[in-house]
Design brief:
The complex is a heterotrimer of chains A (253), B (447) and C (481). With 447 residues, chain B is α/β, with parallel strands linked by helices. In chain B, 25% of the residues lie in helices and 36% in strands. Chain B is built from 10 helices and 20 strands. With 481 residues, chain C is α/β, with parallel strands linked by helices. Chain C has helices spanning 3-17, 35-44, 49-64, 103-112, 116-123, 127-134, 136-146, 154-160, 162-168, 179-187, 209-215, 428-436, 441-452, 454-457, 462-476; strands at residues 150-153, 191-196, 206-207, 222-227, 232-238, 249-250, 253-258, 263-270, 284-293, 299-306, 311-314, 317-320, 326-335, 340-343, 346-349, 355-365, 369-378, 386-396, 401-410, 416-425. In chain C, the strands form 2 sheets. An 8-stranded parallel sheet of chain C has the order 3-5-8-10-13-16-18-20. In chain C, strands 9-11-14-17-15-12 form a 6-stranded parallel barrel. The chains are: A alpha/beta (253), B alpha/beta (447), C alpha/beta (481).
């Protein structure tokens, strides 16, 4: 599904990612953990194609093609979804209108028929209900004035309706209380399938109690310094990031 | 080309110009005299503006132009006045001192003795002096570019320009306190001080400037027409606070033009508490990137005061930041005018400009005219402006009174709170304390 | 001769080349302006003497006035003697089928989603017949008549309701109000008249859309709306489709007179020919629009979507004379290529407890210039007046300009005025968010721009809003580099 090889990325001449290697196979759930400033969010943005991130070397192969060659919207239509840590507010654009547009835009690119108003409403209502969201939020402006929790649920809602192949969730747990965290995790878990992969970026282990990963990687200072299974996350929770930092510098030395 | 204004300059200004020419004859022949003569010519060609001119729409200056002014006496003030002048300095502030009486330097009360800070009469510099050439060149350029007739008037009637230079890498050890005092006794008086300030590369200093005049139990008026030209070189950091407290029949037109080189920071605070008519023309030109410009203003008017703030900020280069915030309280029959223009030229990408004017009207007859303007030719910018005009919030007043404050106390608290952003922009210290004290006095006076 | 005149001439000549000249029937008078011309116009319209005198008075005043010289507009000089002041009614060229119409025009209609019948109207096919079937006036005249509502062409009103026209003409916009209003007062060709009697709520939206199109009287039209106590009307004006206006100068006057508790809502979607990509041609749209809230709680609301014209100069205004009267101004002005728009409003608060709201959204693209210029004035006696203004500008491209010149004049301490303005480009974060969800760059821009204009679209009648949104998209097409 996704093969990242020696990926180096700079922002305004500062190197953030310093040679990341990662392979994600269909159906796998990978978690990237790391302290603040380690480059976790950068990895998500680069995979989704945000400007301002300069790939200085390395490659990213997605479903057999060069992902870095594609524009953000092409990546999205090919099934790459990024759940934002800070979802953007767009005043004046209604949530429902936005959802309709993105659903039909993706359907069109997949050669599917565009949904009519009725089918659209049915789909949205169904997904809203499963995420415990009020239909009222369809009428509101996109993320405008949403609480932190509402924004994150809205991201999961978009993921649910877009049916991506690779979902990257950037700090989806931040700003959520326990109830919301559970709803969001249920949403993600219900979407787990053999042909869909997840890359979950998180600072804390707590999300991983709900979404159990197949692999856990620790990103420190732009490099994956340690990989393991879900128990690594628990170990991190216990010992903190200093432990891996120390260990990795010893390895380097 | 010079613009043409509607009114011709009255004849008595011409007489003053000729009179000063005669007085200066026989003195050292200095290049400034060429500039002075040019200023006179430009002034008489241009004329004075009327309210039909857009930039003077809300400020009629006929009352100012029609008086027959006398030039100040070139002699140094007598001992009594010396004492009075000395008392005008804030003695609690450890500072350098510069004193102007009727627009002319009082050497006895001027003390700028710090290595790295130079203070000169332009006429004391020799023709060969590089600084002399530099100042004259800048002045000539500024005068040839401006459509402001008061710069020409100032130059035409200025006896001796002063020059302050803070050397490269020099950080001033203490602020510079400048007192401008005016005194009209038997006749109307016009004063035209000209001050050239250069902050060299990587220098830093702050200046507090005060304008006062003799008490208003007199028929005659003072007209202070001040001109300051500030150059802030690369990475220089200057901080300028002006407090104007002229008596209630006096006029002041305060002209300040600053230019900023890369990474420089220019902070200007204009506080107007006194005078009959105040007109501030504040212009900042950004010559290179990564500058920071702060223009703060505070005005409190009562009785028949008229306070007009005109500002112009020229974003000509990319990556510069500016903040402009003018706040005022108007009572009695006073009038306030704010006309702030922010120009963002095509090359000035990544400009970040903020402009705000808020005015509190606290009487039935006060009036405010505000015109915050944005003129933007670059697309990757963040610019915003705003203006509010209104009276004190009844609910807040009621709340305060319900907690036991009387009307005056509550009103004062609200007004002080209203002016907070301006004070918050200042560094803690003597300058801020001085201003806060004066503002509080004035607020109490207008209640 | 100015560039735009030359372009117009070329445009006309090319039509002649296709052999349509024999089809055009025109009732025109020689070009140029003189007292004689004013008399001729009045005579052709069989006007009463008082109206001729009124025109002549306006002409005399116009002659003494100076053409304004605007700081922010770059205008090729207008030769007032080269203009034909009476070319109406000019019959449309009759085409046998749509195939004969300008294909580019048809393409635009298609994108606008205008029904085929309407497309035919707009393209000038079988105009007479279709006009009748869609004309609000004709279709609903009977129903409106039962309610006592008068809605007819200005010329008709002069003949049928001279007392009303005489009473209100020039009562809100005096003859000598400004240079172009004076010109209009002297030579106005036609326009609409609308009268809503006391207590009547007009049950449908009134539109001048087709009539003006059909009669081709677009150059100096005059609209007069009178709303008696407790009445309501929503009035739509303009063309919602691009049209090749042959007139270089469009100097209209709109007057609204609202009495006690009357509410007049006036919506405009302006899309006159903006000139070509190089700035050649296009209409000079110099319009004076003003409403007088002359009674207790009267209310006038202006909504405009301005996408056309080479140069737009208009400030729909409200004089809030009645106590508790309300003025509103909602505007979207889009400029692209070499267009220039200088628009805004004047809210003059004279009565107590008066309120005004100003929402202005400017969008500049290409090499265009877009200026908001507005005045909020609170007079000495206007106790407790309130104004809120929000003027935002969006820049698309680094060759355009966006300017905001608000004038705020407050003479009453109990007034409360708030003005806010921002200028920015479309946020990179918003763009990335939308494209990350699979939207193309163009779709993302349209979405964000539409969202940005939402507050104004909300003020438009539903159908109008949909068309206005599409217009916006067309206007901005190709503006994204």
């Amino acid at each position: 599904m996704l093969k990242i090889k020696d990926l180096r990325v700079s922002v305004e001449d500062t190197e953030i990612l310093k040679g990341v290697n990662l392979e994600i196979k269909p159906g796998e759930v990978h978690a990237i953990m790391g302290p603040n400033g380690s480059g976790k969010s950068t990895l998500g943005f680069v995979l989704a194609g945000k400007d301002d991130y300069e790939v200085t070397s390395g490659s990213v192969e997605y479903q057999g093609q060069d992902l870095l060659d594609l524009s953000p919207d092409e990546r999205a239509r090919d099934g790459v979804f990024l759940g934002f840590q800070y979802p953007v507010e767009i005043p004046g654009v209604s949530n429902s209108n936005f959802l309709k547009m993105i659903i039909n835009s993706i359907r069109k690119s997949r050669g599917q028929e565009e949904l009519d108003a009725l089918a659209m409403l049915k789909l949205l209502k169904e997904k809203l209900a499963s995420l415990g969201m009020d239909t009222n939020m369809l009428k509101r402006s996109l993320n405008d004035g949403f609480s932190g929790g509402e924004k994150k649920r809205n991201e999961i809602l978009q993921m649910a309706v877009l049916d991506p192949k690779l979902a990257i969730l950037d700090e989806t747990d931040s700003g959520l209380d326990i109830d919301a965290l559970k709803v969001v995790s249920d949403g993600v878990n219900s979407m787990r399938s053999p042909d869909r992969s997840f890359l979950i970026i998180t600072h804390y282990q707590r999300l991983l109690n709900y979404i159990v990963p197949d692999f856990v990687h620790v990103l420190v200072d732009g490099k994956i310094v340690k990989s393991g299974d879900k128990s690594l996350a628990l170990e991190l929770e216990d010992k903190g990031y200093d432990w891996v930092k120390k260990e990795s510098s010893e390895v380097m030395a | 080309m010079l613009p043409k204004y509607q009114t011709e300059v009255p004849q008595h200004f011409k007489a003053l110009f000729d009179q000063l020419g005669r007085q200066l004859n026989g003195q050292k022949d200095h290049h400034f005299q060429e500039l002075r003569i040019k200023g006179g010519k430009n002034l008489f060609d241009m004329g004075f503006p009327t309210t039909r001119n857009e930039d003077y729409k809300y400020t009629a200056l006929g009352r100012v132009f029609n008086k027959e002014y006398q030039l100040p006496d070139p002699k140094q003030p007598g001992p009594e006045m010396m004492e009075e002048l000395r008392g005008l300095f804030n003695s609690e502030m450890d500072s350098h001192r510069i004193c102007f009486y009727n627009g002319q330097l009082v050497s006895e009360l001027t003390e700028v003795n710090e290595k790295g800070i130079g203070f000169f009469r332009l006429s004391d510099l020799s023709d060969e002096d590089l600084l002399n050439g530099e100042v004259l060149k800048h002045m000539d350029h500024t005068l040839s570019q401006t459509n402001n007739p008061f710069l020409h008037l100032n130059t035409a009637l200025c006896r001796e320009p002063l020059v302050l230079v803070v050397d490269k890498d020099h950080r001033a050890s203490k602020p510079i306190q400048v007192v401008y005092h005016y005194s009209a006794n038997d006749s109307d008086l016009i004063a035209n001080p000209q001050f050239f300030v250069i902050a060299r590369e990587n220098s830093k200093f702050s200046m507090i400037e005060k304008h006062t005049s003799n008490p208003s139990d007199r028929e005659v008026a003072v007209f202070a027409n001040v001109f300051q030209r500030w150059i802030t070189e690369k990475n220089a950091n200057v901080d300028h606070t002006k407090i104007q407290e002229l008596s209630e029949n006096d006029f002041i037109i305060h002209n300040l033009i600053a230019s900023q080189e890369a990474h420089s920071h220019f902070y200007a605070l204009t506080a107007d508490l006194g005078s009959r008519i105040t007109r501030n023309n504040l212009e900042v030109h950004l010559l290179d990137s990564h500058t920071q410009t702060d223009m703060f203003g505070l005005f409190i008017g009562n009785a028949n005061q008229h306070i007009d703030n005109q500002t112009f900020l020229d974003h000509a280069v990319p990556h510069c930041e500016s903040r402009e915030w003018y706040k005022g309280v108007l009572s009695g029959k006073s009038r306030g005018v704010f006309n702030g223009k922010v120009l963002v030229r095509q090359d000035a990408q990544k400009t970040n400009a903020f402009q705000q004017n808020n005015t509190l009207l606290s009487s039935d007859h006060a009036r405010m005219d505000s015109k915050p303007q944005l003129e933007i030719y670059a697309d990757d910018v963040k610019c915003s402006h705003g203006a509010t005009i209104g009276q004190m919030d009844d609910q807040i007043l009621f709340y305060l009174k319900s907690r036991g404050l009387d009307d005056d106390q509550a009103g004062e608290l609200v007004k002080v709170a209203f002016l907070a952003e301006v004070f918050n922009s200042m560094d803690e210290g003597a300058i801020k304390n001085t201003l806060a004290g004066k503002v509080l006095d004035k607020l109490r006076e207008i209640q | 001769m100015s560039d735009s005149m030359q372009t117009l001439e070329k445009h006309t000549q090319s039509e002649y080349k296709y052999g349509w000249s024999s089809d055009i029937e025109m009732d025109i008078i020689p070009k140029g302006l003189s007292e004689e011309v004013v008399r001729m116009i009045s005579a052709k319209k069989k006007e009463p003497k008082w109206l001729l005198d009124w025109r002549l008075e306006a002409y005399a005043k116009w002659k003494t006035m100076k053409e304004p010289n605007w700081a922010k507009l770059n205008i090729a000089p207008i030769s007032y003697q080269d203009i034909i002041y009476y070319a109406a009614p000019k019959k449309q060229k009759k085409l046998n089928s749509l195939d004969e119409a300008d294909p580019e025009l048809l393409k635009t209609f298609e994108r606008l989603g205008i029904p085929l019948d309407e497309r035919k109207v707009l393209a000038g096919v079988a105009v007479d017949a279709v006009i009748d079937s869609v004309s609000v006036t004709t279709t609903f005249k009977k129903k409106l008549g039962e309610l006592g509502i008068i809605f007819c062409s200005f010329s008709e009103a002069v003949q049928e309701h001279p007392e009303l026209v005489r009473e209100y003409l020039g009562s809100v916009v005096p003859q000598n109000d400004n240079y172009f209003a004076a010109l209009n007062s002297a030579v106005f060709s036609d326009g609409s008249f609308c009268y809503i009697p006391k207590g009547v709520r007009c049950p449908m939206e009134l539109s001048t859309y087709f009539r003006i199109n059909a009669a081709n009287t677009g150059q100096f039209e005059r609209t007069l709306i009178v709303a008696e106590d407790d009445s309501y009307v929503s009035y739509l004006e303009g063309c919602t489709a691009p049209m090749r206006d042959e007139n270089q100068l469009h100097a209209a006057v709109v007057e609204i007179y609202a009495k006690e508790r009357a509410f007049v809502k006036y919506s405009t979607v302006q899309n006159w020919y903006p000139g070509d990509k190089d700035g050649k041609g296009g209409v000079y749209n110099f319009v004076t629009k003003r409403g007088l809230c002359n009674g207790f709680r009267s209310r006038i609301s202006w909504t405009q979507v301005e996408t056309g014209s080479a140069i737009t100069w208009k400030y729909p205004s409200c004089i809030l004379k009645g106590n508790e009267s309300i003025g509103e101004f909602y505007s979207i002005a889009v400029t692209n290529n070499y267009q220039q728009a200088d628009t805004g409003t004047k809210m003059i608060h004279l009565g107590k407890n008066t309120k005004s709201t100003i929402i202005s959204k400017g969008i500049s693209a290409g090499k265009s210039h877009n200026t908001y210029r507005g005045l909020v004035k609170i007079g000495k006696k206007a106790d407790n007046a309130r104004n809120f203004s929000e003027c935002d500008s969006l820049l698309m491209g680094d060759r355009c300009g966006a300017h905001t010149f608000p004038y705020i004049e407050i003479e009453n301490q109990s007034g409360k005025v708030e003005h806010e303005a921002t200028t920015s480009k479309i946020g990179a974060d918003q763009m990335f968010y939308c494209t990350q969800r699979g939207l193309s760059v163009e779709d993302a821009i349209n979405l964000i721009v539409n969202g940005y204009c939402k507050e104004v679209f909300n003020e438009l009648p539903m159908e109008f809003a949909v068309e206005a949104q599409k217009l916006l998209e067309i206007s901005l097409e190709g503006s994204v580099g």
